[in-house]
Each structure stands twice: as structure tokens, then as C-alpha cells.
Amino acid sequence: MPGEISVTGRPPAQSPPISLTSRAMRAVFPGSFDPATKGHLDVARRAAGMFDEVVMCVLTNPRKTGRLALAGRLALLADMTSNLANVTVDSSAGRLLVDYCRGAGIGVIVRGLRSLGDLEHELPMAEMNRHLNGIETLFVPTNPAQAHTSSTLISAVAQR
Ligand code: PNS
Known about the structure:
The chain is 35% helix and 18% strand. By secondary structure, the chain is an alpha/beta fold. The protein has a single domain (26-154), classed as HUPs (Rossmann fold), CATH 3.40.50.620. It has a 5-stranded parallel sheet with strand order 3-2-1-4-5, sandwiched between helices. Strand 2, helix 2 (70-80) and strand 3 (87-91) form a beta-alpha-beta unit. The model has no long low-confidence stretch (mean pLDDT 88). It binds 4'-phosphopantetheine. 4'-phosphopantetheine binds at residues 30-32, 59, 61, 64, 96-97, 125, 128-129.
């Protein structure tokens, strides 16, 4: 927007980089996936019904220390999604999610929401990503049956 001030040093996005109507709609479902859970799988399955392709992309979350090695996370994701024909797995390190999306021709980010706490955490990221390159975030409410699962809790239980 004319006169808009950039707080990031990057110019604000003028318009979405990808038309959502004129080409195949690819979405990214990013996360640490350390490890991936049934909740993640539920979100991936539902997103797969809405987009031509959903890429589950393992990224680095600086707020979390890694448990599984990257290869293990990718192998688990590939195994869990093997029956979802339009779900693929990928990884990206040392890059912003928006830069990955630009390079991969992806116009939508999908994130699962378990709670209002999740929304508080996710909303600023969604707004920042949209500011950076116009990319939209689609929030998918998680299945209440899986609301109690998280990678952190599953790892803690598995260690006992
Ligand atoms: O599963 P998580 O840990 O909640 O996923 C968070 C993740 C990896 C999606 C987020 O930390 C992320 O997008 N990291 C990539 C770096 C980036 O783009 N950061 C700026 C977000 S505004």
C-alpha cells in the first residue's frame, strides 16, 4: 500500500503472488513434526481434500530443540501419508517459510488449531507471512478427539 511502513525491511506485499483461481492450488502444511502426530495427519488429510497438492514441509522452529533427526521426521511423515496421493513431504532449513513458498509456487499455508492458545501464537505468524509476500494462512480446527495430542506430550510419554 502506498505510504505503508515496513517494519521488516522488506517492502510490504502489494498483492498475492499467486492467483488462487487460475492455476493448480498447492498448499504447504509446515511444522516441526518432531514427531508427526495423528492430529497432524488429520489436518493433512482434510487439507488434501481442499487443495490439488499439500506439501508437508519440515522446518526449523527456533523455540524448540530437536528430538528426531530430520531423516526420521521425513520418513515418518512419508509413511503416515503414503495413502494420501496428493500429499508430499519436503524440508527446508535456514529459510523463511515465505521464501520456501515463493520458490515452490505455493500460495496457501495450512496450520492446525487445537486451542485459543494456538491461535494467539499462530495469528502473528500468519499476519507476518501475509505482510511479507501476501500469502494467506488457512487455519484448520483439529479434531477434538486428538486435541490432547502434541509432539511434546507424545515424546514425553514415549520416554517412560
Ligand atoms: O510445528 P511447529 O513447531 O509449531 O511449527 C512452527 C514453524 C516451523 C511452522 C515455524 O516456526 C516456521 O514457520 N518456521 C520457519 C521460519 C519462519 O518462517 N519464521 C517466521 C514465521 S513468521
